[in-house]
Write a structure and sequence with these properties.
mainly alpha, Four Helix Bundle (Hemerythrin (Met), subunit A), disordered C terminus
């Protein structure tokens, strides 16, 4: 993290925390909506509600994955390993972190993983993070 200024790190932390808080809010909303839908028992709307529920479950799953990535990034900040590539141990450039604050790899690290036939674990990075 030494390659990041205090201002850069604070800016990234603020963005990550804001996105984390928004995702937590949305997930809580999804859960309360699902409970309310379970309480409604109108047979005519059953199929429509089931489709909505299926879509909501998929969205919530993606949001939970993103939330894990955000929380992992905050954890790396606390540990002092944020902004260091997990594959090459090289510094991840600030521009890349600005584009994707949860980035765990440099572009070179991702290319190395690909060449080796491996893929990044768990927290996916957004496609625009390169």
């Amino acid at each position: 993290m030494e390659h990041l200024t205090a201002e850069q790190l604070a800016s990234l932390r603020t963005r990550i925390e804001a996105e984390r808080d928004e995702l937590r809010r949305r997930l809580a909303l999804h859960e309360s909506e699902a409970r309310a839908a379970d309480e409604e028992r109108d047979e005519q709307d059953l199929a429509a509600r089931e489709q909505e529920r299926t879509n909501a479950v998929m969205v919530a799953g993606r949001e939970r994955g993103r939330l894990r990535a955000l929380e992992a990034a905050l954890s790396r900040m606390r540990e002092g390993s944020y902004g260091i590539c997990e594959e090459t141990d090289e510094e991840i450039p600030f521009g890349r972190l600005q584009a994707e604050p949860t980035a765990r790899y440099t572009v070179e690290g991702l290319e190395q993983l690909e060449r080796d036939g491996r893929s990044p674990e768990l927290e996916p990075e957004s496609p625009g993070a390169y």
